[in-house]
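Tutorial handout. Part one gives the primary structure; part two gives the three-dimensional structure as tokens.
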Amino acid sequence: MARPATLTVTGTASVSRAPDRAIVSFAIQTTDADSGKATSANAAIANALTAKLTQLGLPAADVVTAGYGLDYAPRPTKPDPASDQRYGYTVTRTIDATVDAIDRAGAVIDAGVSAGATGINGVSFVLRDAHAAQRSAQAAALADAVAQARSLASAAGMRLVRIVSIAPGGGDAVAPRMMRMPVMAMAASSVPTTITPGNLTVDAQVTVNYEIAPSP
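Part two.
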């Protein structure tokens, strides 16, 4: 028995969504010849930063330590005056603050800088319900695939009998939008920081396999 003829099409779509969550990554770096003093100084800044963000209304669960490290660099006999190398014990801590209101991200950044953060690794903008955006993009990609199948089948003098399979493809992940921010420039200015992230684009791809037959 002959196998039925099939038609395979791949639909693609993109949807645009405004981000509704920001993740600000603060860096705290302290150096001292004494490891205890380096760690204590780092902890003091971290505590001040956490307190500042708590005062802004951020829940404790949204201010987390994302990284921590302690390194030692011995001071050379003849240090290079032109080098920016830090000697002694260097403690590096990363604190991530999740902000569920984009318009408050600038205030969070300013609070962290005023608390003593020595750097900002960047700001990520994401969607709280990324799956909903993915589903919308996939539905649009499926509609594109169906439209293609109908057009191709009609042009070939065929009709669509039934869907044999539907398979989502790659490209449907919601990539966060990143912004880099020079902390020294912000620290030197009393102008409040403003954030304008722009929209996020969500891509999707869906492959549909149809059984087809000649039009009557």
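Part three, for discussion. Residues 118 and 206 are 46 Å apart (CA to CA). The chain has two domains: 1-18+128-177+194-216, 21-76+85-126.
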